[in-house]
Amino acid sequence: GLERNICYKMVLSTTVAIVGGGIVGSSLAYSLSKLGIPCVVVERNQIGGGATSMSCGTMWYPGPLAIHATKDRQCRDSMHIVKELHQRSQYDFEFSQPGSINVATTLVQGCFLFMAYLTGKYYYQHDVEFVIKPYVKRLEPALSHKAVCVLHYPGSGQVNPHKLTQTFVDEAQKESDKVTVFEDTTIQDVTYNAQSGFTFKLGHNDDANTVTTLQSKFVVLCMGVWANNDKTLSTKMNLPKFHTIPVRGQIWTVPVPSTTNKIVFPMESTMHWMFNRSSWPARSKVTHAPVSMLQSGQGKAVIDMQKYEESINGDPVRLTTHYYGKVVSNGCMMVGGMRKPVSFSEIDGYDEPDPFDHVEYEQVNAKIGELYSKPEGDIKGQQYWTGLMPFDIHNKPFIGTVQEWTQLHKQSKAKCTVDCHNRVFFANGFGPSGIMCGPGAMQALATRIGEETSNITPNNE
User: Fold this and answer.
1) Which pTM does this prediction carry?
2) How many CA atoms lie less than 13 Å away from 350 in the CB half-sphere?
3) Phi and psi at residue 114, in whole multiples of 5°?
4) What number of H helices and E strands is found in the chain?
5) Residue 457 DSSP one-character state
6) Is 147 helix (H, G, I), strand (E, B) or coil?
7) What Cα–Cα distance (Å) separates residue 346 from each residue in 71, 225, 341, 342?
8) Tens of each residue's pLDDT in the chain, 461 residues
9) How far, in Å, CA of 42 to CA of 37, rounded?
């Protein structure tokens, strides 16, 4: 009649430990599996169930609207990977290519859109079309007469982010029997030895009596906004404070006319994003960081984490309005409202919605009403939720080793010379573009890791 608590221990050995099972971590596992590199994905919740599941899942080529050419290349590669996955997989992750349009409603926006067209067509070599007013209605009948011109990307697509993330993991395990996935799993401890590599102690939320010991040669942190918030990893690996800022975005689903068939991006939003930053440091370009959280260093805008926390813990200010459209299966369009940074101490409650902002809600609905022919009064949001996006302070996603990151940002030498930092990769800062460019970026990272593993032999550990 005595009850016993028996602890079961498992020991696994792999080449790459991937921390985080969102779109970045899952697509990395997929690319590694195609190269035959063993890996283990460790996710504290469900695969694709965190911030990834709350994204819109839009895939397009930003071209001239991208901050740098690397992002454009990553987006191209991501589309190629997803299209190939769609053809080979039996899973339906709701991939389609309805095309997208950037809509200009003023002559100023139209001039900017035309310059974007020339850049996209002749510099980035995109399949893109510039359509003027007499022909706009033929392309998208649902748009209102206020549409002066549009930039049409025929190849733009959309996916179900949650299903795509799960498909990447499932296909990775089909591709290779050396891919293991742990869900509802936390990292309780980690140690590093130059000979044996990393040793993780994993606890399983659904089975307190099972403890897994995981040994790996490399670690890739694909943790999104939680990159600075895992005390175990930060302490044990002596990680620096990364420049990843959690930004909360509100999203509604708004009914649109049944004739709508394109993904819609109002140009007003893009121009507001790119130019309405009078209170922002010029060098920070597209960020959500107010001056109070920045300090000057080496001619660059460098985040001051302490000032960041102080500014956020006060009264957060919404810093930009950004709205966009994506047609979903139920005839609604996803609409993003204003964004604001969130304190690192509060990100665990990311799935808790903000207090309902009626003013913002009405503003966004009014904008959608102007964009479509349907009367404004009939366009009302049905529901809304919030998600967190990992923005880099410079809006330049970083993919590389922690050692490279610390050297790039001139962190202290003590942190640069930690033995394990050349074996820990960091992939973050994609902001709202994880679906668009994450798979392509992780394909490149998988290739680099493959090159790194070939340099590791028993004699030069």
Assistant:
1) 0.85
2) 24
3) -65, -40
4) 12, 20
5) -
6) coil
7) 29, 11, 11, 7
8) 334 344 456 889 999 999 999 999 999 999 999 999 999 999 998 999 888 887 778 887 665 555 567 778 888 899 999 999 999 999 999 898 888 888 888 899 899 899 888 888 887 788 889 999 889 988 888 788 888 999 998 888 889 899 999 999 999 999 999 999 999 999 999 999 888 899 999 998 888 778 899 999 999 999 988 887 788 888 888 888 787 877 777 666 766 666 677 888 788 777 766 665 443 333 233 334 443 333 433 334 444 555 555 555 444 444 445 555 555 555 666 666 666 666 666 665 554 555 555 556 666 667 676 777 654 445 556 555 667 788 776 667 889 999 888 887 765 444 444 578 889 999 988 887 889 999 999 999 999 999 988 765 443 33
9) 16
User: Residue 85: how many CB atoms within 10 A of its CB?
Assistant: 20
- Tokens 């020339």 label which residue? 118
Taking alpha carbons only, the member of 49, 39, 60, 332 closest to residue 163 is: 49
Sequence-distant (≥ 6) Cβ neighbours of residue 64 within 8 angstroms: 115, 116, 117, 119, 120, 123, 124
Cβ partners under 8 Å of residue 413, min gap 6: none
Q: From the centroid of its chain, how far is CA 138?
A: 34
Distance separating alpha carbons of residues 232 and 264, to the nearest angstrom: 42
- Give the residue from 39, 127, 130 showing the smallest Cα distance to 442: 39
Q: CA-CA distance, 243 to 300, in Å (whole number)? A: 13
- Residue positions counted in the chain: 461
Alpha helices in 46-182 (DSSP H): 69-88, 107-122, 133-139, 161-175
261 contact partners, CB below 8 Å, separation of at least 6: 98, 140, 142, 327
Asked if residue 450 lies in contact with residue 217, where contact means CB atoms within 8 angstroms, the answer is: no
Phi-psi region of 210 (alpha: psi -120 to 50; beta: other; left: phi over 0): beta
The token pair that represents 184 in the structure block: 């509802």
Which residues sit opposite 220 in a β-bridge?
A: 18, 425
User: Backbone phi, then psi, for 45, in 5-degree steps?
Assistant: -120, -125
CA end-to-end span of the chain = 51
